[in-house]
Amino acid sequence: MTDPHQPQTKRIWPPELKGATTMGETATGDAKAPQTTDEKIKAALRRVFDPEIPVNIYDLGLIYKIEHDPAKRRVVVTMTLTSPHCPEAETIPETIKRELELVAEIDSALVLVVWDPPWEKGMMSEDAKLALGME
To answer: From the DSSP assignment, how many helices (H) and strands (E) are in the chain?
Structure first.
């Protein structure tokens, strides 16, 4: 029961977007837990948001390559940012590393930021474009 004298709180970040998928959800909204390690890695990446854009980094198209070595329990992610002048250029890769290392099958993660090829809006998933009203 809520206290009528307490102010109402509202979740503001990350925003809930129509048409966008979140960790473990399909495009139709059915909850589905990731099964394979690769699915878990992608789900971890989808939990990371650029604070200035209400779409996860995976659907934004910022992830260029995922190299998973099950024998070494290691993952290397090659990615970019929307701009070399991104104010979150240091924190986003650190957040990605932490999220990846939460995956049970991963002991270590390395995140490499590259600028070639440069990011462009066409790299976004259809869900991201829809969520941002670009469809």
So the answer is: 4, 3
Residue 132 identity (one-letter amino acid): L
Looking at residue 75, the DSSP 8-state letter turns out to be: E
At residue 40, what is the residue type?
K
| 134 band by pLDDT with thresholds 50, 70 and 90 | confident
Give the position of tokens 């990446």. Answer: 45
The structural architecture, per CATH, of the domain 37-120 is: 2-Layer Sandwich (3.30)
pLDDT surpasses 80 at 2 = no
The whole model's pTM is what? Answer: 0.74
Domain ranges of the chain: 37-120
Q: Which residue has the tokens 């969520």?
A: 131
User: What are the phi and psi torsion angles at 25 (to 5°)?
Assistant: -105, 145
| Residues in CB range of 105: below 8 A, 6 or more apart | 37, 40, 70, 73
Residue 4: exposed, middle, or buried by beta-carbon count in 10 A (0-12, 13-18, 19+)? Answer: exposed
